[in-house]
Design a protein that fits this description.
Oligomer: single chain
Strand order of the largest sheet: 3-2-1-8-10-9-5-6-4-7
Low-confidence stretches: 343-347
Structural class: alpha+beta
Radius of gyration: 21 Å
Distance between the termini: 28 Å
CATH architecture of the domain at 2-159 and 329-346: 2-Layer Sandwich
CATH superfamily of the domain at 2-159 and 329-346: ATPase, nucleotide binding domain
Shape: globular
Helix content: 25-40%
Mean pLDDT: 92
Number of helices: 10
CATH class of the domain at 2-159 and 329-346: Alpha Beta
Largest sheet: 10 strands, mixed
Number of strands: 15
Strand content: 25-35%
Amino acid sequence: MKYVAIDCGKYKTKACAFDSETGSYRRTTFRTRMSEGSFEDDMLEKGTIVVRVDGGDVYKVGPGAKNEAELETSKKSEIHRICTMSAIAMMVEENTKNVKAVIGIPYQLAQDPEKRLEYKDFIIPDKEHTVEIKTSSDGPVRKVTFSFSKRLVYPESIGVLYEYPIELGDITGIIDIGNLNTNCTYCMNYQPQQESSFTDEMGGKILISGLAQQLSSELGARVDDNLVASTLLKDESKRFLMSKNNDKTVEERSRAVINEYLMEHTLNIKRKLDAKHWPTSFMNICMIGGTTKILKPEIRNVFGDVFIPEEPEFVNVAGFLRKMCADDNIDVKKETVEKADKKQKVS
């Protein structure tokens, strides 16, 4: 059995897989971008692949592609289907019959059986698939054929519960700050509570676009999303804009605007939780998602002692895989550690 978990987000697609026969574990991540492609392309950008799914159009996928996912809560779109199928093809061998796969969907959509099943049948249809894939400019075009033995859909965010079960027991609030959405999942004894969980459009893309507009207005000069994104990825002490003539006024004003905007964004998340009557002063709070790394100082300031995993953007899909395997009485972490130990002893 090949177990594959895929988290196809608005910004990045993450996937990991475990082979129950060999005990091997692998993972991948790439930008959720897509545009017209060609297998003859000999200048593929780093991390970019070319794929054709089930005899359809040929696409370039990854950072070198032109089009990003639409900013809408639903993921029932061609870009999410192609990126998901590409990730699976990267995780399995040329002819794999027994693939047990899991994908994620926003919690509120997961509670609607009709929408959940429609999403599953669109993204990972229950049939044999053939994916042609090229992962480097001078590499070969692999033809990967696979079929599913089981297809699952999990609510986004719950993966962290299974990746860190000891740290997150009893009453836990999971705040997953993605590229578009912030999924807020209230859990009791590892079970999401539907009436207290919600999804809001307070993700990183919204944050960056709004901050770019604010900086442009305050500084009287054009500031775009790329400049803001690169600035926010720097250490907290370097979160400011530097003008070409080293104008300290620009540096100080931009730093103040950035810090104020990030704090207000974090406070707004807290207000949403308060409106849902979350007992944040008494519950475990876990922050995940790629945007969490940007907001770490503000999160600590607003929420105090919270749990932020080492890889907040990857923990969800890793937990998906762990839960799926655990349902078949397989401990992925134990299996991979034992395999690593055996390799070390042999070498």
